[in-house]
Amino acid sequence: MLVAFSVTPIGTGESVGDLVAEAVRVVRASGLPNHTDAMFTTIEGEWDECFAVVKQAVAAVAAGGARVSLSLKADVRPGVTDALTAKVAHIERALQE
What we know:
It is globular and about 45 Å long. It has a single domain, classed as Alpha-Beta Plaits (2-Layer Sandwich). It is of the alpha+beta class. A hairpin with a 4-residue loop joins β2 and β3. Strands 2-3-1-4 form a 4-stranded antiparallel sheet, covered by helices on one side. It starts with a strand and ends with a helix. The mean pLDDT is 93. It is 45% helix and 26% strand. α1 (17-30) runs antiparallel to α2.
């Protein structure tokens, strides 16, 4: 499955980058395939391992503030692997045609 999520501290001021970096640090330490862009971090793995990482990422951000906003979107496709890069590669091939 793919899980795209965004963890944002609330009430910590305008700049949230340092706390968000703590969430990304959790994701990268997980060993799951991942990609971070300006809006979301996407991870790929099994249901339980993905949601454990999301929970840890939320906890990392919550350590710096009392309130956290979590936005999440999941693509659940049992048996599919490497979707994190395969989906993008498909689009890139289509753009070359």
